[in-house]
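re: ur msg from earlier - yeah i can do the NDP complex, just paste it... oh wait u already did. ok heres what im feeding in:
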Amino acid sequence: MVAVTGWDVEPWLAALRQAAPEREFVTEADGADDPSIKYAVVWNQHRGSLSSLPNLEMIFSMGAGVDHVLNDTSLPDVPIVRIVSPDLTMRMSEYVVWQVLDHFRNGPAYRSQQNEGIWRELPQPAANAVTVGIVGLGVLGMDAARILRSIGFSVCGWSRTQKLIDGIACFSGDTGLKQLLSQSDIIVVLLPLTSKTKGLINREFLDSMKQETPIGGPVLINAGRGGLQIEADILAALNNGRLMAASLDVFEAEPLDQNSPLWHHPAVTVTPHIAASSEPTVLAAEIIRQMDRFENGEVPRGVVDRESGY
Ligand code: NDP
Ligand code: OXD
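and the outut:
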């Protein structure tokens, strides 16, 4: 059963049918309590829609995140598998590199100068003089870290469990987060939304960010989840100068409210949750491979730990 809200289900159905012509796919509306349904492929399913499936064996998230699956209080107790795919990972790394380079190379300032017809060179540090702190050193954070390092940036990262990675200073725990924030010029957040990470990007977080940076001030990039951030605190930090600029791909409520001051803030780049879109033609085949793996007695990649929430 393919259970989707907020996304167009048709391209997914078409891609799944093409990837596995021998399997049958139905939508939430047609599936209801069908005992032949073994798998649910979901993005933000209607709450309760999976609880009436008597023989469900596995839930597949159409994205890397699973907060949209787990916040259904009547979720059946079957394994949840998320997307771990080179395609999605590359898309996220592209977004991160795009935003990091834009801030690093004075993109906002040069665009504003162009509007005014101003020909003026701005100071440009070398990449190795700038530290990017990755908050969330998982599949996506690790790949972005690797590519940023290959461009020349110093990179550090924060995760729940302590890591040891060649060339990347790794931190964990509350003290570790403070250390990372105080050492980084640009912060990239790639965390999942869980009960532990909700609202993490708040005033205390923003106040802990390094103030004197080679690019003129601290920069925040959040492509994890909107629930990680307190938008009022980000706006206050931008307005009182604690934060120089922010690139936000995700928001507390999506789509971002038309009245949100973030839309028109000169120091904010807004994108509509597109950092790493799930491409059905690629990911449908990936999900089918996971089903095949499961049916061959193997453990699918990206099984979610419900306790941790990611
Ligand atoms: P992973 O599960 O691979 O990585 C999550 C990382 O966050 C891990 O390093 C984990 O630590 C860390 N983490 C989790 N909880 C905590 C905590 N309480 N304290 C410190 N660190 C923590 O996920 P992915 O990298 O694949 O994806 C990350 C998120 O990106 C997704 O959950 C989703 O929300 C978001 N996303 C956004 C997209 C967009 O278009 N904007 C697209 C795709 C994903 P540890 O390594 O110790 O487990
Ligand atoms: C995801 C997303 O979790 O697109 O994959 O947000």
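cool cool. The chain has a mean pLDDT of 97. ping me if u need the other ligands too
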